[in-house]
Amino acid sequence: MRLVLIGPPGAGKGTQAAILSDCLDIPHISTGDLFRDHVTRRTPLGRDAQRYLDTGELVPDQVTGDMVRERLAQSDARGFLLDGFPRTVAQARGLSAMLDATGSALDAVLEFTAPEDVVVTRLLNRGRPDDTEDVIRHRLRVYRRQTAPLLAHYSGILLTVQAVGPVEVIAARAMACLLGAGRRAG
Ligand code: AMP
C-alpha cells in the first residue's frame, strides 16, 4: 500500500502515521523526521535545512524531493506511508514521476482535518523547538497557501478523516476509510 498523509500541523499526522504503519506493515516516512535527523547529525543538508525548520518555512522542493527519492529507493519502501510529503503541488508532481519510473502509483491520500484552535493547542502542548505560537501560526499559513491546493490535486484518491477525539478512535476511522476505499476499488 502506498499512502500519503496530509493535514495542517497539529492534526496528529505523526501519531496516526505511527499507528497505521504498524497496522499496515509499511514504513512510516516523515520528511520532518528526516530533516530533524540531518540537523541532529549536522550533515550539510541539515545545516541548510535548519533555518527553514526554525522559521516554519518549507525547505526548497529540490532538496526535499532528492531526500525523498533517496529514501524511497531503499529496499523496504515498496509500500510506504508518507507523512509531511508532498507539501506543494511541485513536490506532488515530483512524487508521481518517481512512482511512474517504477511502474507504481499512490493508492490513497488521507487528509486529517481539525479546527485551528484544536491544532494550535495540541502544538503548544507538544513543545518542539518550532512549536512557538508565532512559528505555529506561520506554519498554518504556509499549509493553507502551499499545501491545501494539494487536496484538489488529489481529489480522485482523497479520503478525509475528522481528526478530533481519542487517538484510537481517529486511527479506527482512518482504517475504516482505507478499507472502504479498497472495497470500492475492488
Ligand atoms: P513536520 O515535522 O512535518 O511538522 O515538519 C517540520 C518542518 O520540516 C517543516 O516546518 C518544514 O520546515 C520542514 N519540512 C517537512 N516536510 C517538508 C516538505 N515536504 N517540504 C518542505 N519542507 C518540509
What's the arrangement of secondary structure elements?
Blueprint (H helix, E strand, L loop, with lengths): L1 E5 L6 H12 L3 E3 H11 L2 H12 L5 H12 L7 E4 L5 H13 L6 E6 L2 H11 L6 H15 L1 H5 L4 E5 L4 H19 L1
Parallel strand pairs: 1-3, 1-4, 2-3, 4-5
Helix pairs in contact: 1-9, 2-3, 4-5, 6-7
The protein binds adenosine monophosphate.
Can you give a write-up of this model?
- The protein has 186 residues and is α/β, with parallel strands linked by helices.
- It has one domain: Rossmann fold.
- The chain is 59% helix and 12% strand.
- The chain has helices at 13-24, 31-41, 44-55, 61-72, 89-101, 116-126, 133-147, 149-153, 167-185, and strands spanning 2-6, 28-30, 80-83, 108-113, 158-162.
- Helix 1 packs across helix 9 (167-185), helix 2 packs across helix 3 and helix 6 crosses helix 7.
- The protein is globular, with a radius of gyration of 16 Å.
- The mean pLDDT is 96.
- The structure holds adenosine monophosphate.
- Adenosine monophosphate binds at residues 9, 31-32, 35, 52-53, 56-59, 64, 84-85, 87, 91, 139.
Portion in helices: 55-70%
Report the average pLDDT across residues: 96
Total strands: the figure is 5
Whole-number count of domains: 1
Q: H/E order of the elements?
A: EHEHHHEHEHHHEH
Which outline best applies?
A: globular
Placed side by side, the strands forming the largest sheet appear as: 2-3-1-4-5
At CATH level 2, the architecture is: 3-Layer(aba) Sandwich
* The CATH topology: Rossmann fold
Q: Could you list some keywords that capture this structure?
A:
186 residues, alpha/beta, Rossmann fold, five-stranded parallel beta sheet
